[in-house]
RNA sequence: GCCGAUGUAGCUCAGUGGUAGAGCACUCGAUUCGUAAUCGAGCGGUCACGAGUUCAAAUCUCGUCAUCGGCUCCA
């Protein structure tokens, strides 16, 4: 490479190509919107029997839903793309036309596209706007668009995938075929977008988890049932111990409850009525019991168990808040098509806790929980998340409890959030069936959103289980429950952590923290001695016994993403020192063994870097 | 659950109807080595599973299971 070439490469690196989201760029909004129309037009040119439905922009592209008896194939996609290029090169004008509702109805009837009639019915404003591409194709659309199809760059768009999607997002409706595409201002942006997508794929926890040997799935065990290897188990228990310590400081008590219970327990809680189909099947002695829905089920939730512990004694207001915590493993029969990696599984462990509080204590205790959750995220260096207040959908009948209790609970959360000055958004219809909740939403490498932490306010289960405490005046009062889980589930949290760190765990979490590399087998005994000494000090260290050359040992250590490697040879053995090499900073020079141990334990203790 | 794609050695992947392949990993041997791959040999497969078509199936057809991308769902 010539000097000038390397300079320009650096220049490119210094000024990365920006990839705006659609919602932050009016120009891309027009481009992507028009691109979806161009795609629809191309599809109807090639496959005239196809009906078009809706085709909005997405944050990085667009899609369009089609109704066609035959499924689209990869080959079709190529043909459609080619046709789109033709339409772009024809520079067809994009013309806005305003018509009356009656006129729109007439035109739709003429072209026999019943889906459009339904869409028209949904449009609340009058008059109706249509957009024409040239004089042969039009669609109902509010716009905006670019001025002609020639404003799209023929090399700055691509068609990405085909998927099924229900009409109007309702599984009871017919399924349409959705084609996803992406479109940009320039070919360079498209290229960069594809490059970043490939990079993101490299962080995928399913890939990294396999490479690092953290967890496994086996067809012999079943789908959605991960098993944790020794390395993965270190991650899990380190996270568990971390949270247990935090909880102990905050007045939580650990409890342990069984994995199965009588189905009646969940009938009382209301879970059975709401989620029967999503639970593993009932275990019963005989057909008759099965028919009568009597028997045992694998627990999908821990709360009813904790409620039983609460109920086992007469509680005084002096005992409240009572905080019962458990890493409880629950089983849910998730739909087969929904399973994926660690983010959606059928058996998982919640860092669950149930807080029983007096109504007066609710807001303070809620804020304490939010504090705990935020401090946990901070320790894990998780900074990209959104807080979502999930409230009930007033028109739905899936919720239990009185309107009054719901309003109280929702207001309590809003009030607490405002008191804390925390920003959040509201999501009507996302509440649990027994109460509203504050959820913490994270993104995976592919920008899919997942709920991790959650805090839920519940006036209903105390009612259904008739919970009581004795108040100051001797009267029996009903406590309020808070359900909360900072991690949500260990499985999902670890999935997200793997992607967040790209497998480069901070020292305190790394399954293998230090690897000792002997320059030759001659120094293996010394390496083993140092490793043993480190283990004694609580450092997860191991000597590499493979007998390979140093270069290979380093390569293997780097591939395994070991945060600290310590090389030992004649010099080190002589001086009782280590030549340190960290994954983050490379060679650090030599250091006495005792000093290294002291620094390592300090960094691990403070969850900091070495 | 629905639509579509995929499934070959522990891993990553070639192999379009005619005797199952490569690299890495693993085992053994040689080498004793100073900051990202030493050399050589060996081991390893019911081509996901089950039917079918065919003289012949990893390859074609159907079914099942699993994985992946979406949709729906998510206490």
How would you describe what is shown here?
The structure is a single chain. The protein has 610 residues and is an alpha+beta fold. It folds into three domains: 22-195, Threonyl-trna Synthetase, Chain A, domain 2 (Threonyl-tRNA Synthetase, Chain A, domain 2, 2-Layer Sandwich); 215-256 and 299-501, Bira Bifunctional Protein, Domain 2 (BirA Bifunctional Protein, domain 2, 2-Layer Sandwich); 514-605, Anticodon-binding domain (Rossmann fold, 3-Layer(aba) Sandwich), CATH 3.40.50. Helices cover 39% and strands 23% of the residues. The chain is built from 20 helices and 27 strands. The chain has an eight-stranded mixed β-sheet, sandwiched between helices. Residues 1-12 have low confidence and may be disordered. It binds one RNA strand of 75 nucleotides through strand 7, strand 8, helix 7, helix 10 and helix 18.
Distance between the termini: 36 Å
The biggest sheet amounts to: 8 strands, mixed
Major beta sheet, strand line-up: 11-14-15-22-19-18-16-17
Shape: globular
Q: Which class do the helix and strand fractions yield?
A: alpha+beta
Instruction: Please state the CA-atom Rg, rounded to the nearest Å.
Output: 30 Å
User: How confident overall, as mean pLDDT?
Assistant: 94
CATH hierarchy class name of the largest domain: Alpha Beta
Assign a percent range to the helix content: 25-40%
Task: Please indicate the percent range of residues in DSSP E strands (runs of 2 or more).
Answer: 15-25%
CATH topology of the largest domain: BirA Bifunctional Protein, domain 2
CATH level-four homologous superfamily name of the largest domain: Bira Bifunctional Protein, Domain 2
Low-confidence runs of at least 5 consecutive residues? 1-12
Under the CATH scheme, the architecture of the largest domain is 2-Layer Sandwich
Number of strands: 27
- The figure for the number of domains is 3
Number of helices: 20
């Amino acid at each position: 490479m010539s000097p000038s070439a390397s300079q320009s490469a650096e220049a490119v690196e210094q000024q990365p190509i920006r990839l705006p989201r659609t919602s932050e760029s009016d120009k891309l909004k027009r481009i992507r919107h028009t691109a979806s129309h161009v795609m629809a037009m191309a599809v109807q040119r090639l496959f005239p029997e196809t009906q078009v439905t809706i085709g909005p922009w997405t944050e990085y592209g667009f899609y369009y839903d089609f109704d066609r008896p035959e499924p689209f194939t990869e080959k079709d996609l190529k043909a459609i793309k080619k046709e789109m290029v033709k339409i772009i090169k024809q520079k067809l004008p994009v013309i806005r036309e305003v018509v009356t509702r009656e006129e729109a109805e007439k035109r739709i009837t003429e072209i026999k596209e019943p889906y459009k009639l339904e869409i028209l019915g949904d449009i609340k404003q009058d008059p109706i706007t249509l957009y024409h591409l040239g004089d042969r194709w039009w669609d109902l659309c509010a716009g905006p668009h670019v001025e002609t199809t020639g404003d799209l760059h023929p090399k700055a768009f691509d068609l990405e995938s085909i998927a099924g999607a229900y009409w109007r997002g309702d599984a009871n409706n017919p399924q349409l075929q959705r084609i996803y595409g992406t479109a940009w201002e320039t070919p360079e942006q498209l290229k960069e977008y594809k490059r970043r997508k490939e990079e993101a794929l490299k962080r995928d926890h399913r890939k990294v988890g396999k490479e690092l040997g953290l967890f496994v799935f086996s067809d012999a065990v079943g789908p959605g049932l991960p098993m944790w290897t020794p390395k993965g188990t270190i991650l899990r228990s380190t996270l568990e111990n971390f949270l247990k310590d935090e909880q102990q400081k905050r007045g939580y008590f650990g409890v342990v409850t069984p994995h199965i219970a009588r189905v009646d327990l969940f009938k009382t809680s209301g879970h059975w009525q709401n989620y029967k189909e999503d639970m593993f099947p009932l275990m019963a002695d005989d057909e008759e019991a099965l028919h009568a829905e009597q028997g045992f089920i694998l627990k999908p939730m821990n709360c009813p168990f904790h409620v039983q512990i609460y109920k086992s004694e007469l509680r005084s207001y002096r005992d409240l808040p009572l905080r019962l915590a458990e890493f409880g493993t629950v089983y849910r029969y998730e739909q087969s098509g929904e399973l994926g990696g660690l983010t959606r599984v059928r058996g998982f462990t919640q860092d669950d806790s149930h807080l029983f509080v007096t109504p007066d204590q609710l807001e303070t205790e809620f804020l304490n929980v939010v504090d705990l959750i935020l401090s946990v995220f901070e320790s894990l260096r998780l900074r990209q998340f959104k807080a979502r207040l999930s409230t009930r959908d007033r028109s739905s009948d899936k919720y239990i409890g009185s309107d009054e209790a719901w309003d109280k609970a929702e207001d309590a959360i809003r009030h607490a959030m405002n008191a804390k000055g925390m920003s959040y958004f509201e999501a009507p219809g996302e509440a649990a069936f027994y109460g509203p909740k504050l959820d913490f939403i994270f993104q995976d490498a592919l920008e899919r959103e997942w709920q991790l932490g959650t805090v839920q306010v519940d006036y209903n289960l105390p009612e259904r289980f008739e919970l009581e405490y004795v108040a100051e005046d001797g009267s029996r009062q009903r406590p309020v429950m808070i359900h909360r889980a900072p991690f949500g589930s260990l499985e999902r949290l670890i999935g997200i952590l793997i992607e967040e760190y790209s497998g480069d765990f901070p020292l305190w979490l790394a399954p293998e923290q230090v690897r000792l590399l002997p320059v030759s087998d001659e120094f293996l005994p010394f390496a083993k001695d140092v490793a043993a000494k480190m283990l004694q000090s609580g450092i997860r260290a191991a000597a590499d016994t493979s007998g390979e050359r140093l270069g290979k040992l380093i390569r293997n250590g780097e591939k395994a993403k070991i945060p600290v490697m310590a090389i030992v040879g004649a010099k080190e053995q002589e001086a009782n020192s280590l030549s340190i090499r960290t994954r983050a900073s490379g060679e650090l020079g030599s250091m006495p063994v005792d000093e290294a141990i002291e620094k390592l334990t300090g960094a691990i203790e403070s969850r900091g870097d070495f």
